[in-house]
């Protein structure tokens, strides 16, 4: 299997090479040169996520140096529960809980997979691999947790000052050792731009070994496709019908993973996206005009993205997007608050602000006679400053998150200019 750039200006690369580079030489994102096609029967006997992952990802690892390690990588990456359950008091609606990993967010899956791959590929203490990650909330914490204390690898996390929740910031800054956190005086798009500038800096890349842990990395998207494959198979085996997915999204990585799973033949009907007030995606699907813009700060902070990188991958697969391919709706802060409180009171369900966007879209825009799986992307305890005043009660904190909340913070303030970030990357 070879991977090519969305911009068609780089040579095809094997999985391991695409993983190491992060971004293709022409600035594009890596996508499979050819997508495998599966039948539902191909997964007969595979029930656990790790087993489904080994089958789904085998074509992408074919001929790669990591191919013999795939089963072990999948066991490492899918070592925590990914429960699919019915939503209380709502017929034909299920929720896929992706927040049972070490940092209580769906990003733990992709980060664990990426770290399991890199651990087997890298590890040069004399010339460490530098993993760059821009985060709007959850990605950085998951990557830091997955790579913390791994020899020969250094992690550089960039996050926007004042635009993540207090508990998210704690998860970004509590690690130390081989993880450095940078609090950027800008928005997420500024953080993402700094990372892209580093990858485009040929002089820097000649002297430093760089890779990405954002969803621009092919090593993040492929494992995310696994939980859509798994959930769709579980649902289909139970009731014999293809579910549609409602996916909260910001940078579009999680959404593209779902689209890829459907494109490869998994039993998935419609892919519905829920965004916050950063409505560049639904506006594009309505008008056909792609207009990136400055991101807005919202309650669903991990989705505060005005120029989603993975739109390149989506448009590469579907050059002319229309309603049959994907649908999207925007949900504002007041609607998020209303949905959190409504479902808490009426359904005894408690959502994080991001998951609440999916719940709002389901309740207000979709056919309640159809089968839907709503994706719960983060534990509500990560957003206690939003949720607890609404419900008038405290939110129980998962043990893994509780442990991190008591560690000291370490971070460096950074301006949005590239020079200071470059200096940080080249310092001894």
Bulk shape: globular
Radius of gyration: 20 Å
Number of helices: 17
Range of helix content: 40-55%
The N- and C-terminal alpha carbons lie at a distance of 37 Å
The chain-level mean pLDDT equals: 93
How is this structure best described in words?
It is a single chain. With 428 residues, the protein is an alpha/beta fold. Helix content is 42%, strand content 14%. It has 17 helices and 13 strands. The chain has a six-stranded mixed beta sheet with strand order 3-4-12-9-10-11, sandwiched between helices. Helix 5 links the parallel strand 5 and strand 6. Helix 9 crosses helix 10. The longest helix is centred in the middle third of the chain and has 22 residues. The protein starts with a strand and ends with a helix. The model has no long low-confidence stretch (mean pLDDT 93).
């Amino acid at each position: 299997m070879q991977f090519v750039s969305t911009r068609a200006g780089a040579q095809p690369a094997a999985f391991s090479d695409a993983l190491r580079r992060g971004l293709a030489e022409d600035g594009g994102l890596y996508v499979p040169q050819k997508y495998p096609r599966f039948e539902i029967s191909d997964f007969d006997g595979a029930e656990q996520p790790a087993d489904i992952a080994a089958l789904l990802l085998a074509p992408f690892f074919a001929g790669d140096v990591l191919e013999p390690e795939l089963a072990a990588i999948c066991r490492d990456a899918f070592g925590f529960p990914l429960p699919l359950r019915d939503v209380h008091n709502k017929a034909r609606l299920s929720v896929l809980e992706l927040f049972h990993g070490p940092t209580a967010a769906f990003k733990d899956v992709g980060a664990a997979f990426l770290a399991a791959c890199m651990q087997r590929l890298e590890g040069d203490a004399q010339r460490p691999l530098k993993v760059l990650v821009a985060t709007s909330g959850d990605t950085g914490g998951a990557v830091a947790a997955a790579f913390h204390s791994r020899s020969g690898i250094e992690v550089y996390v960039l996050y926007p000052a004042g635009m993540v929740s207090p508990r998210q910031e704690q998860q970004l800054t509590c690690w130390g050792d081989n993880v450095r956190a940078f609090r950027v005086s800008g928005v997420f798009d500024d953080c993402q731009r700094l990372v892209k500038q580093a990858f485009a800096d040929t002089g820097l890349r000649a002297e430093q070994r760089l890779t990405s842990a954002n969803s621009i990395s092919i090593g993040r998207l492929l494992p995310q496709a696994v939980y859509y494959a798994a959930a769709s198979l579980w649902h289909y085996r139970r009731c014999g019908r293809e579910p549609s997915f409602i996916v909260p999204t910001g940078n579009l990585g999680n959404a593209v993973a779902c689209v890829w799973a459907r494109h490869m033949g998994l039993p998935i009907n419609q892919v519905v996206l829920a965004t916050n007030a950063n409505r560049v995606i639904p506006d594009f699907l309505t008008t056909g005009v792609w207009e990136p813009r400055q991101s807005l700060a919202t309650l669903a902070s991990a989705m505060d993205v005005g120029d989603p990188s993975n739109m390149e991958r989506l448009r590469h697969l579907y050059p002319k997007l229309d309603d049959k391919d994907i649908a999207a709706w925007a949900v504002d802060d007041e609607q998020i608050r209303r949905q959190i409180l409504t479902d808490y009171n009426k359904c005894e369900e408690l959502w994080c602000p991001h998951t609440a966007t999916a719940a709002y879209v389901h309740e207000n825009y979709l056919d309640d006679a159809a089968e839907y799986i709503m994706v719960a992307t983060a534990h509500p305890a990560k957003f206690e400053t939003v949720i607890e005043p609404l419900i008038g009660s405290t939110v129980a904190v998962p043990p893994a998150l509780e442990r991190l909340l008591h560690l000291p913070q370490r971070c460096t303030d950074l301006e949005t200019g590239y020079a200071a970030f470059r200096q940080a990357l080249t310092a001894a």
